[in-house]
């Protein structure tokens, strides 16, 4: 399986993920290596909390020096390679810096990134990162530092030499290798077409082109009955505190994980195919910069989560960047109140039950979401043919009904 996606390190890189096959010896060695990395992470958490109480700094440089001391004082830690242990410190420092940034920005507690916590053996999924000096590809196999050899299922060739690799295990128990490579740019021929996109819950994406609307497929709702059956099995077989899980509990847990995995893949596949179609048919794309986090607190939380608006928007942004399309993010404020034809703004916000937008200034009547999609084009400066009476020299705050 290959899943190219933008890397978190920057827009100049992308990840390509492949399934791994491994022997029992390689699996045991990987798990031991993960135990060492998990121990390093937990030590970083402990040192960070102690430094916070003492009002001292605990940056990556200080933790690197501590790692040298830890390896010198523990022979079993020294037996493992230092590359993934150094990378786990980098991951910890990045996670801690993000949490501190949110605290300094005085974001609400529910919107902050949490401070790093201890990784428990039975709950934390194994994840090991290797830089270029910690791995190599030879004869189609992945050779990691420490003498670990893994067989990669090459669904297709890598576009370039990878700079790093992440080896991890998912909830089902499958192992994957995620390679970081330079992002490809494959410009598509221009056709002079523009499209506006508005996000929603009833339909995941409503556009100015009827043929490119993305309906809400409700993959999670369709699988809810099957998922509930496995969760009931888990509840009946749940082990008591301190006892090992039974075979029936582990089987039901794996079945539930398979359902979740299938739902995630369906959502991802649908989002990528839609994003590919939009970027192939339009040169200029105006997208609502919608942040659906607040929907988690509303009565539409489950339906909004099933729509995966954020993931769909991310796939569209990545696809537009890959194919050299002009994508513009539009602020979502007042997009349901402005008229997409004349730019006038209603005096009161429309309730969700009102699905038709009627402009009192120009008399235009259109579906609410379609009107919002037209507003995206106007605000982005991509006015389609036929739109008149719109003055782009006026700010959005100056437009009044």
Automatic annotation (TrEMBL):
Residue span, Probable transposase IS891/IS1136/IS1341 domain: 184-290
Name of this protein: Transposase
NCBIfam families: guided_TnpB
Keyword Nucleotide-binding found: no
GO biological process, one term: DNA recombination
Biological source species: Acrocarpospora macrocephala
Keywords attached to this entry: DNA recombination, DNA-binding, Transposition
Family in the record: In the C-terminal section; belongs to the transposase 35 family.
Pfam families: Cas12f1-like_TNB, OrfB_IS605
Residues covered by the Cas12f1-like TNB domain: 315-374
Gene Ontology terms, MF aspect: DNA binding
């Amino acid at each position: 399986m290959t899943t190219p996606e933008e890397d978190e390190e920057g827009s100049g890189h992308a990840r390509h993920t492949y399934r791994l096959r491994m022997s029992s010896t390689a699996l045991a060695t990987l798990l031991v290596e993960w135990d060492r990395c998990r121990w390093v992470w937990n030590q970083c958490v402990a040192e960070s909390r102690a430094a916070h109480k003492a009002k001292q700094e605990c940056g990556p440089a200080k933790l690197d020096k501590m790692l040298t001391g830890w390896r010198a004082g523990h022979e079993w830690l020294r037996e493992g390679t230092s590359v993934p242990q150094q990378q786990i410190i980098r991951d910890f420092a990045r996670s801690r810096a993000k949490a501190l940034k949110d605290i300094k920005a005085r974001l609400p507690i529910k919107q902050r990134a949490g401070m790093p916590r201890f990784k428990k053996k039975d709950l934390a999924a194994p994840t090991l990162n290797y830089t270029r000096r910690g791995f190599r590809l030879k004869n189609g196999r992945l050779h990691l530092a420490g003498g670990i050899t893994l067989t990669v299922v090459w669904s297709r060739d890598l576009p370039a030499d990878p700079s790093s690799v992440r080896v991890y295990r998912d909830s089902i128990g499958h192992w994957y290798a995620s390679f970081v490579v330079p992002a490809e740019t494959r410009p598509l021929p221009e056709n002079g077409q523009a499209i506006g996109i508005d996000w929603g819950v009833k339909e995941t994406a409503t556009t100015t082109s009827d043929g490119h609307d993305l309906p809400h497929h409700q993959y999670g709702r369709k699988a809810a009955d099957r998922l509930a059956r496995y969760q009931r099995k888990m509840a009946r077989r749940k082990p008591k505190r301190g006892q090992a899980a039974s075979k029936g509990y582990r089987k039901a847990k794996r079945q539930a994980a398979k359902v979740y995995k299938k739902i995630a893949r369906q959502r991802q596949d649908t989002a990528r195919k839609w994003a590919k179609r939009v970027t192939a048919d339009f040169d200029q794309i105006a997208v609502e910069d919608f942040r659906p986090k607040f929907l988690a607190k509303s009565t539409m939380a489950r339906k909004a989560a099933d729509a995966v608006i954020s993931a769909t928007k991310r796939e569209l942004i990545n696809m537009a960047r890959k194919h050299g399309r002009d994508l513009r993010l539009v602020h979502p404020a007042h997009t349901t109140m402005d008229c997409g034809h004349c730019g006038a703004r209603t005096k009161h916000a429309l309730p969700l039950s009102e699905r038709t937008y009627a402009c009192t200034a120009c008399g235009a009547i259109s579906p609410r979401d379609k009107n919002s999609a037209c507003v995206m084009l106007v605000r982005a400066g991509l006015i389609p043919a036929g739109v008149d009476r719109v003055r782009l020299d006026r700010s959005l705050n100056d437009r009044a009904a």
